Amino acid sequence: MTLCCLAQYDTALLKPVRTIRGDYADFTIDNLGNFYVLTQSNQLKKLSPAGDSISVYNDVKRFGKVYAIDATNPLKLLLYYKDFGTIVVLDRFLNVRTTINLRAHNLFQVKAVSQSYDNNIWLYDEQEARLKKLDEEGNLLVQFTDLRQVIEPTPSPTKLVDQDRLLYLYDPATGLFIFDYFGTLKTKLALTGWQDFQVVDNKVFGRKNGVLQQYQPGSLQLKEFPLGAGLAGIDKLIISTRYIYCLRGGAIQVYSF
């Protein structure tokens, strides 16, 4: 892999758009630009792109600490509580649609979950080393081959993304694995140690040691640039096609490029 400057996201070219102040511990966005923010007191709020409050979900602590929030579909939000093995599905007003007790379906070691293109749920069952798809009732729809038969060492992913008929499975220790919908391993990339893994327009992004890295599978070219003083000390970074969103000191900062 060769390296080159990622000029499109050069921090010198970033323009501050707004700062959404609060005591936020985590956040994500949907494809309409709405924010889903988790406060330090474990209250979940939905905010408009301008930062105005839309809805609040107050029962967020019922199953302990939220491990992951997936807002891929703006009409449906997934909350994953890893310690309790529970997925809570909310509607766009943050009302509960359904709750899935994974342990009741014999799923005891699940670290990564994701919404699927057809509004079902992907997850990685570490106990069986299989990617599986469930419906909203927790019924098994699809399961792939035991990955212990095809990958060594077996991954322990922290992130699972379904985009453009591909499944991206990311493990910071072993790298990125890309599958098709038939469970065939298409690509394995040694992109290790990334924080904030995400997929945007068939490119993968991650943050590592103060550097934002981008790779387009098949290009053999890893693009990167230092985040610089302007984005120093951030806790989380999300990229969209128009903006970069950063969580720092409990506030969300939005930049355009």
Report the C-alpha radius of gyration, rounded: 18 Å
CATH superfamily: TolB, C-terminal domain
Counted up, domains total: 1
Distance between the termini: 26 Å
Major sheet:
5 strands, mixed
Count of separate DSSP helical elements: 0
Q: How do the helices and strands follow one another from N- to C-terminus?
A: EEEEEEEEEEEEEEEEEEEEEEEEE
- Give the overall form: globular
Q: Which structural class fits the helix and strand makeup?
A: mainly beta
Helix fraction bin: under 10%
Number of E-state strands: 25
Strand order of the largest sheet: 1-22-21-20-19
Write the CATH fold name: Neuraminidase
Name of the CATH first level: Mainly Beta
3D structure, described in words:
- By secondary structure, the chain is mainly β.
- It has a single domain (2-256), classed as Neuraminidase (6 Propeller), CATH 2.120.10.
- Helix content is 0%, strand content 53%.
- The protein has no helices and 25 strands.
- The chain has strands at residues 2-5, 15-20, 24-29, 35-39, 44-47, 53-57, 68-73, 76-81, 86-91, 96-101, 110-115, 121-125, 130-134, 140-143, 159-163, 166-171, 175-180, 185-189, 195-200, 203-208, 211-215, 221-226, 236-239, 243-248, 251-256.
- The chain has a five-stranded mixed beta sheet with strand order 1-22-21-20-19, with no helix packed on it.
- The two termini are 26 Å apart.
- The model has no long low-confidence stretch (mean pLDDT 92).
